[in-house]
From TrEMBL:
<feature type="transmembrane region" description="Helical">
    <location>
        <begin position="69"/>
        <end position="88"/>
    </location>
</feature>
<dbReference type="InterPro" id="IPR000160">
    <property type="entry name" value="GGDEF_dom"/>
</dbReference>
<feature type="domain" description="GGDEF">
    <location>
        <begin position="229"/>
        <end position="358"/>
    </location>
</feature>
<dbReference type="InterPro" id="IPR043128">
    <property type="entry name" value="Rev_trsase/Diguanyl_cyclase"/>
</dbReference>
<dbReference type="InterPro" id="IPR050469">
    <property type="entry name" value="Diguanylate_Cyclase"/>
</dbReference>
<keyword id="KW-0472">Membrane</keyword>
<feature type="transmembrane region" description="Helical">
    <location>
        <begin position="118"/>
        <end position="134"/>
    </location>
</feature>
<dbReference type="Pfam" id="PF00990">
    <property type="entry name" value="GGDEF"/>
</dbReference>
<feature type="transmembrane region" description="Helical">
    <location>
        <begin position="154"/>
        <end position="174"/>
    </location>
</feature>
<feature type="transmembrane region" description="Helical">
    <location>
        <begin position="94"/>
        <end position="111"/>
    </location>
</feature>
<feature type="transmembrane region" description="Helical">
    <location>
        <begin position="15"/>
        <end position="39"/>
    </location>
</feature>
<keyword id="KW-0812">Transmembrane</keyword>
<protein>
    <submittedName>
        <fullName>Diguanylate cyclase (GGDEF)-like protein</fullName>
    </submittedName>
</protein>
<dbReference type="GO" id="GO:0052621">
    <property type="term" value="F:diguanylate cyclase activity"/>
</dbReference>
<keyword id="KW-0175">Coiled coil</keyword>
<keyword id="KW-1133">Transmembrane helix</keyword>
<feature type="coiled-coil region">
    <location>
        <begin position="174"/>
        <end position="201"/>
    </location>
</feature>
């Protein structure tokens, strides 16, 4: 049967399948080696038992049945039966037995988790300590093998290769998972940036939406006293926008809104920000800007908007109001004042922006 654990297996389950194959291979090689060098056949009982147990487990594990049960049973048998038997029949505290002890430790750490892992690690330590004490007090119980060098040539390379393979498998998985985590982190960061942009901007115009506009205004209000910088708020409304919608349709109306928003952003450059207040109304917030500078900028805004269309059918003009936001001012009151100024212009000659105090065209 071809050994090819599917992608539905966890890394620990895949490793357990490969370990069963290793147990079978190691057992067969050890039996052949023991017979070849003339060891007593009794030393092969543990390998025969391991072959039988591994084959039984392999049959179910490759079908994803009773995996944890077999992991637990085989580990218990190895730690409490086969390893002590090998210690006693293979010369006691030798390089071979200790290499198996480390291999068992590696396997337990990679296959099990939580309390089960702790249980088997503590059990292995206690078993090794017990065997060492037993060997020290009752050395006659340990079977001395004069041809241990033959075993070293067979079993030592196999245990080293098995340990190396297990570490390589998990090392490769670690690097793959780390790379996947990096990619997911980048995608998550991109998604977060996109979500942040969506939550802050108006979908049609790309300017700040009303909710985030007020968040920024509140932030600026708290910074006015610290920075001691003047802040100007301008509210504008596109003149005759309903007529444009009715005459040319909402597609053209939407295009006008986009062009106006882009024109506003371009006109103020890096002096502040623009937000869509609602419908065809926009709020412009200018930081570190005096009233005089604000007045000059409104002239620039009006001039640039009239050039958005190069034909006489659509001519863009705006009406609006402008006020200064001071530390003692309430944001809602300032917005109410500029809205009243805008209303006055809309019901007058339009195409104008009034300043709060002077109520003169700027």
């Amino acid at each position: 049967m071809k050994i090819n654990p599917s992608n539905n297996y966890s890394l620990e389950e895949k490793l357990f399948v490969y370990m069963l194959v290793f147990f079978i291979l190691l057992s067969v090689v050890s039996i052949i080696g023991n017979i070849t060098v003339g060891f007593d056949f009794a030393v092969n009982y543990k390998w025969i038992a391991l072959i039988v147990l591994s084959c039984i487990a392999f049959k179910d594990v490759i079908k994803k049945r009773h995996i944890f049960v077999f992991q637990t049973i085989i580990t218990c048998i190895i730690i409490f039966v086969l390893f002590p038997n090998g210690w006693i029949t293979s010369g006691g505290n030798s390089s071979i037995t200790m290499s198996y002890a480390f291999l068992i430790c590696i396997c337990v750490c990679f296959i099990f988790q939580g309390k089960t892992r702790v249980f088997f690690l503590i059990s292995e330590v206690l078993v090794v300590l017990s065997l060492i004490v037993l060997e020290m007090r009752y050395p006659n119980l340990i079977i001395n093998i004069s041809l241990e060098q033959q075993d070293l040539l067979i079993q030592m390379p196999l245990t080293l290769l098995a340990a190396a393979y297990i570490i390589i498998v998990f090392s490769k998985a670690y690097h793959e998972e780390r790379e996947l985590l990096r990619q997911y982190s980048e995608k998550l960061e991109e998604s977060n940036q996109l979500l942040m942009k969506i939550s802050r901007t108006d979908e049609l115009t790309g300017t700040y939406n009303r909710r985030y506009l007020f968040e920024r205004l509140n932030e600026i209000k708290t910074q006015i006293k610290e920075k001691n910088q003047p802040v100007i708020i301008i509210m504008i409304d596109i003149d005759n926008f309903k007529t444009i919608n009715d005459q040319y349709g909402h597609v053209v109306g939407d295009e006008v809104l986009k062009r106006v928003s882009n024109g506003l952003i371009s006109a103020i450059e890096n002096k502040g920000f623009v937000g869509r207040y609602g419908g065809d109304e926009f709020i412009i917030v200018l930081e570190d800007t005096t009233v005089k500078e604000g007045a000059e900028l409104t002239s620039k805004i009006k001039g640039s908007l009239t050039k958005l269309y190069d034909h006489d059918e659509i001519r863009i003009t705006v009406s609006g109001g402008m006020a200064q936001l001071a530390i003692e001012d309430d944001i809602d009151d300032v917005l109410s004042n500029v809205d009243k100024l805008l209303y006055r212009v809309k019901h007058g000659s339009k195409d104008n922006i009034l300043f709060e105090d002077e109520c003169e065209a700027v």
